[in-house]
């Protein structure tokens, strides 16, 4: 399914481990350069600004090809308009395949063709179905998932998550007011189930190729789970979708549940993040706590804004100060000291990398000695005492 050579992907993982070991001080700069020289890797671009530049260049290239094709069908305007986006999507698939076989990955050029392909698939289905959202969301999610599985395109996984969520929402809209009323609970259940599914896939993952995409999907589920029953989100969507007008002295149905959910879930995220030492969940818990405070202030102004910001700053400073003071001397577990290694499994390949950089051999090479030691059978005394 994956377009890239598996050996090149393994080399990519080894080079990443070498970079982590270099940053941790376990190997020298020369050893790192030697490893990068000896192991061919994918054509990627780590500089985000350069990658954006290549993305713009790829977009112009993609647009130019589509524009040139359009010159041949512009005479039959109505018929061509019905099929042109299918042609553009086909061009995008072809360009993505060509760049993938040339080992372009997260480079910018490939981003333009892959994201452009997904966009054109959506436009094509939108024209064919007269804007039937649920069908458009379904086929966009399929196209995005294919791009991720085939080309390991992490941005396509994000598009897949958004498209699947849109498919769920539009599907619930098909049930009318009942579907709209139970939408928060449906989204909450969906996010929870999708979270545990992606977590299981990550735990059972034997190859690291899909790890980043699954981690993104797993993190997306945490965001969706919290927002699905956040009081502010539910109340505003109720007003938008159901026309519910909350008059003074009244509230939305199940308001107590949504209030409790808004504050309990960030605390659960925080506790689980500290327990599992999960950095992504820790940051999400901080953002969720901040959004929960904003939710309350959006409807209930307990203090003037300047007083609230000042008190909030004092509390955050106090928490940060005492946390640093308590954790700065800890050597393991939750600690304030910087990580020497960003990835927890970096040391697993340390020996192979050191061997490769020291002796000039690839990690998979094994040396078999022609000598058989023991009993002094070759050139020295052994257990048998013979020469």
TrEMBL record:
The chain crosses the membrane at residues 48-73, 79-100, 112-128, 134-149, 154-172, 178-197, 209-234, 254-271, 280-299, 305-324. Keywords: Membrane, Transmembrane, Transmembrane helix. It comes from the Bacteria. This is DUF2157 domain-containing protein. It comes from Flavobacterium ginsenosidimutans. The lineage of its organism: Bacteria, Pseudomonadati, Bacteroidota, Flavobacteriia, Flavobacteriales.
């Amino acid at each position: 399914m994956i377009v890239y050579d598996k050996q090149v992907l393994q080399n990519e993982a080894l080079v990443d481990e070498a970079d982590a070991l270099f940053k941790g001080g376990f190997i020298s700069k020369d050893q790192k350069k030697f490893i990068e020289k000896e192991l061919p890797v994918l054509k990627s671009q780590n500089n985000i600004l350069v990658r954006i530049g290549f993305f713009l260049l790829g977009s112009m290239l993609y647009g130019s090809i589509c524009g040139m094709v359009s010159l041949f069908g512009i005479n039959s305007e109505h018929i061509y308009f019905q099929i042109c986006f299918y042609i553009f999507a086909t061009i995008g698939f072809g360009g993505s395949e060509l760049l993938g076989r040339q080992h372009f990955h997260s480079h910018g050029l490939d981003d333009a063709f892959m994201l452009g392909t997904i966009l054109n698939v959506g436009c094509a289905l939108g024209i064919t179905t007269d804007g039937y959202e649920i069908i458009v969301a379904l086929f966009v999610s399929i196209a995005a998932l294919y791009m991720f599985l085939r080309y390991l395109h992490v941005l396509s996984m994000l598009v897949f998550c958004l498209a699947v969520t849109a498919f769920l929402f539009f599907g619930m809209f098909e049930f009318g007011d009942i579907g709209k009323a139970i939408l928060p609970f449906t989204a909450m259940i969906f996010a929870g189930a999708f979270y545990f599914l992606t977590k299981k896939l990550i735990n059972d993952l034997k190859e690291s190729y899909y790890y980043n995409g699954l981690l993104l999907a797993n993190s997306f589920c945490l965001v969706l789970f919290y927002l699905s029953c956040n009081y502010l989100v539910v109340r505003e969507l109720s007003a938008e979708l159901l026309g519910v007008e909350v008059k003074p002295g009244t509230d939305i149905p199940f308001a107590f549940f949504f209030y409790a959910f808004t504050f309990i879930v960030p605390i659960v995220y925080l506790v689980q993040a500290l327990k599992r030492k999960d950095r992504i969940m820790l940051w999400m818990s901080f953002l969720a706590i901040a959004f929960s405070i904003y939710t309350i202030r959006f409807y209930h102004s307990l203090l003037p804004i300047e007083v609230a910001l000042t008190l909030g700053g004092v509390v955050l400073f106090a928490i940060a100060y005492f946390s640093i003071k308590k954790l700065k001397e800890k050597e393991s577990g939750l600690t304030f000291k910087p990580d020497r290694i960003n990835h927890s499994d970096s040391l697993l390949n340390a020996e192979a990398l050191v061997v490769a950089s020291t002796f000039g051999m690839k990690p998979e090479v094994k040396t078999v000695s022609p000598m058989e030691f023991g009993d002094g059978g070759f050139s020295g005394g052994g257990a048998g005492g013979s020469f």
